[in-house]
Amino acid sequence: MALNLGPGERVIFEGHPSWRAILDFYIKGILVVAIIFALLLWLVDSTALAVLVLVGGSALVVLVGFVRRMATDYMITTRRLYIKHGIISRDVQETKIERVQDVNYRQGFLQRILQIGDVDFDTAARDSEGDFVFAGVAQPEKVVDKVHHGTEPQALRHATDTTGSGLGDYRNDDDPPPPPPPR
After folding, report:
1. Residues with Cβ < 8 Å from 68, sequence gap 6 or more?
2. What are the distances in angstroms from CA 104 to CA 10, 35, 54, 123, 140?
3. Alpha carbon distance 164, 54 (integer Å)
4. CB of 22 within 8 A of CB of 136?
5. Residue 45 has what pLDDT?
6. pLDDT-based confidence at 127, cuts 50/70/90?
7. How far apart are CA 30 and CA 33, in angstroms?
8. CA angle 121–125–127, rounded 5-degree value
9. Alpha-carbon gap, residue 104 to 144, rounded angstroms
10. Taking 60 as the threshold, does the pLDDT of residue 166 lie above it?
11. pLDDT in tens, 38-72
12. Which residue, among 151, 183, 15, 174, has the nearest Cα to 83 in the 3D structure?
């Protein structure tokens, strides 16, 4: 993913929705193609046309699902959250990591079986622009852990850390220590 990182900014997580997250799309698409195949066999006396529709339709469903998945990018750096959807038209969400107030993940029954889930980042924004959800990521508990602990020591502090201002309280070891609190 092409994101210009600032000085000292490092990528903590980068990915796409899991292929398992779009299984329902594949199942529904292949089911529709199979119904069209059966109707063609029943209504038209051309088995070759029906087989062509079955093979071509199935290939199209797989291609569309793959493109849909790969056209969604998720990235967490030591300073930002980033979500990009789309190829031709783009929808990009980006926020500073210090605006993140809470990180949770949700998994329904089927999602737990498939080991996928949705990671929800609650930000300081008051409108729908503050909704950052990494939908359908594999092993969402590991994504949350990476946010809380970072891939390097002290890349990010816990959201519950009482010594700083929260999740986005990033400090490089080369930075000077913060001034003491006023008395």
Report:
1. 22, 25
2. 22, 40, 41, 12, 9
3. 59
4. yes
5. 79
6. low
7. 5
8. 105
9. 7
10. no
11. 999 888 878 889 899 999 999 999 999 999 999 99
12. 15
Hunting for tokens 């502090």 — which residue is that?
A: 157
CATH top-level class of 11-17+74-149: mainly beta
Q: What angle do CA 10, 12, 18 make, to 5 degrees?
A: 140
**Is there a contact between 6 and 82 (Cβ–Cβ < 8 Å)?**
no
Per-residue tokens: 88 = 């031709």
8 Å CB contact between 78 and 9: yes
Cβ atoms of 137 and 15 within 8 Å: the answer is yes
Within its chain, how far is the Cα of 101 from the centroid?
Answer: 18
Report whether 65 contacts 74 (CB < 8 A).
no
Residue with tokens 């398992």: 20
- What is the rounded distance in angstroms from the CA atom of residue 68 to the CA atom of residue 58? 15
Residue type at position 28: K
- Among the ranges given (16-30, 93-107, 129-143, 159-173), the one the predictor scored with the smallest mean pLDDT: 159-173
| Tokens coding 143 | 């994504």
Amino acid in position 162: T
Boundaries of every domain in the chain: 11-17+74-149, 21-69
Residue pair 17/69 in contact by the 8 Å Cβ criterion: yes
